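Lecture 7, part 2: worked example. A protein chain together with BIS(adenosine)-5'-pentaphosphate.
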Amino acid sequence: MRIILLGSPGAGKGTQAKFLCEHYCIPQISTGDMLRAAVQANSPLGQQVQAIMASGALVPDEVIIKLVKQRILEQDCQQGFLLDGFPRTLPQAQALMDAGISLDAVIEIRVADEIIIQRLSGRRVHLTSGRVYHQDFHPSRIPGRDDETGEPLIQRIDDQADTVRHRLDVYHQQTTPLLKFYADLAAEQVAASPQFFSIDGNQAVEQVRATLLQLLGD
Ligand code: AP5
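Predicted complex, written out as structure tokens:
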């Protein structure tokens, strides 16, 4: 299974990606997690992208395309993968096609901007694993601690309200054209076209999960 999850910041891509990857035994390729790991390691890539990410802007296409292409070549992606946060621009989507990487499904998770602000202000993450919690909607068992390791949870620097608003603007300008791109591709119905779905992400986590599994044929 080769899946792309699209959706605005905070739409629930990471939350649902964890379920789907476990269900289909495929790796989650989260470009955001990969970049945050590079920042934490203070690698040359991390130094290059740190300020861009903190501002809520997008990392240059050539940097991110190279990163994803390398990751997809790894052994664990042979049976499939889930792309979470990539592609985000038309050149990124085109690069996937040009590389001959076929897809089964592209799914947009739709959430209203007002709800996004509320979700991201309460989000807490476990940086090492990428596990995501919400203070009200999806709390960890012990407040402020990861369920599996007991390590501290953090608030992402780009989850401050002003930065979230900028990330939403960037999403509407640069990523929403991908919805038409994939809808048109699906409508062509040639052998390599992925299916395209758009689902209501304003529902509870479990309901969104059930809808996804139903659409993907489970
Ligand atoms: P990235 O890490 O990809 O951030 P994002 O796309 O903005 O998405 P988020 O991780 O913020 O949200 P999500 O949809 O995964 O929601 P989540 O499940 O956590 O990217 C960060 C930065 O890296 C970018 O700004 C950019 O600089 C750079 N970057 C990354 N990829 C790039 C690319 N391809 N090109 C260029 N630059 C790139 O859920 C959010 C909260 O809501 C959580 O607290 C969760 O518990 C809660 N929640 C989830 N679902 C529900 C629900 N149904 N009901 C109630 N609460 C819910």
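Residues 142 and 150 are 8 Å apart (CA to CA). The pocket of BIS(adenosine)-5'-pentaphosphate is lined by residues 7, 9-15, 31-32, 35, 52-53, 56-59, 64, 85-86, 88, 92, 119, 122-123, 132-134, 137-138, 158, 167, 201, 204-205, 208 (CB under 6 Å). Keep this in mind for problem set question 3.
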